[in-house]
Amino acid sequence: MSSITLAYKENLKSLSDELIRIQKPIQILDAIKWPRELERQFLQHPHSLPKVDQAFYQNRPLSFYPPELKLALLDLKVAIRRKLGHRDKLGKILSKTADQYLLVIEMLENRGNQRFGEISTQLYGSSQHKLHGDRHSIKQLGDRLSYLFSLPAAKRANRQHPKVLDAEHAVNELSQRLNRYFHSDEIRVRLSDGIMSDAAVGGDTIKISTHAKFSEADLNIYEVHEGWVHVGTTLNGRMQPYATWLGVGSPRVAATQEGLAVLLEMLTLSSTPGRARRISDRIEAVSMAENGADFIEVFRYFREQNLSETDSYRITQRVFRGGDVSGGSYFTKDISYVRGYVENVNFIRAAITAGLPELIPMLFVGKLAIEDIPTLYQAQKLGVIEAPQYLPPMFDDYSGLYAWFGFAAGLAEINLKGVQRHFQRLFKDLPTIDPISEFTDETEFDNNSD
Fold this sequence. Notes:
globular, about 55% helix
C-alpha cells in the first residue's frame, strides 16, 4: 500500500466521520411527527382539519441550529474538494449527500408552509415523475397496483392474517429471529409509545407500538423489511473502515432503501395484498395532495375506497406531516416504496443481462442510492469499500436470483395480455366470489410499518 493510497483512505474516513457528526441531530421524521392524540381528536370530528399549522411546528423547535449546520456542511464540501479532488467519484457522492442535508435543513425550516412541499419534491420526487427508462409515471403504476390489491380475491386473502398477537409477543419473537440473523451484533427490539406506525426502525433498533395488534404476516414483514434491509444496511455501513457515511441515510437513498425492503417482502413471500395495497395507495395520497387536495378530501377519498377510519387517517397523515393540512404543501417520501421497488428490480435485471451479477450484493453494502453502486464496486476492488457482512440468503448466493430474474427478463418479451385472455376464457364459468364471504366479516387486515 503506497503512502498516497493510505492518505486517501484516511482523508475519506475523516470526511465521512465529519458528515456523520454534522447530520446526527437532523431527524426528519421526528421533526414533522404529530402527537397520537391528534388522531383521536380528528376521528371524533372528521369534518374539521387537524389543528396543525405553522404555529404548531414553531412550538416544536428543531433539535439543531440551522445556520450552524449549514455553515458546517458548506465547509465540509470545501474540504472534500481540497482533500479528495473535485473529480474523485467517492468525493462526489459525499458532496451530493452534503447537498441533500442542506436541502433537508431548509425544508425543516419551512414546516407548515408551501416551501416545505417544494423541497420535499426535490428530495424525494413527485408522483408525476416517470419511472427510469419508462414512459409511465409513478402515479400510473400506483393506480394499477391499487386496483389489483383491492379486488375481492385480495380481501379474501387478507382474512388469512388476523391480528391476534400483542406487542410484547411481537417484540420477543422479532428479537429471537433477528438476533439469529445478525449473529455478530445484538439487535434491539423494544416497545414504544411514541410512534404513529405499528413498527419503525432507527439505526440498530426496531420499535414496536404498544398500541397495536399483529398478525404472523406482520412479523414476517418486519423481520425482512425493518430487519434484513434497514438494520442490515445500517450495520454493513457502520462496518466500513473508510466510507463510514454508508452507515447513515439521507433522502437520496430513500427510494433504494424502501424499494429494496419491499422487494425482500416479495422475494420471501412475506407480504399480503392488504400490505401491498397500503403501499400503492400512498401514491394516490401524494398525488391528491400535489393537486391541491386538503387533509379532509384525501381522508374522505380513502374512506370511500372502504379503508377504515384509522387507516384512512394514517395514510393521509403521512402525506401532510410537515406540510399544510389546508392544501398546497405535502411530504412526498411515500412514493419511494413503489418507485424504489421498480428501480431495484430493473437494476438486478440489468446487472444480470449485462453480465455483472456481482453488483447485486452491493445493494446491501450500506445506505446508498442505486446510481452509486458502480463507483462503490470499483472502490471495493481497490480495497476502499468492504463487502457487506449481512446478506439475505438469496443475495449471498445470487444464483437463484439470477435464475428468477433471468426468467422474468424472458417473460417480458411475451404478449402477457394474450396469455391473460387465454386463461380468462378458461376461468369464465368459475365463481369469482368466495361462497362464504357473505357470512364473513370483510375486515381488511393491514400492517402499519413505515
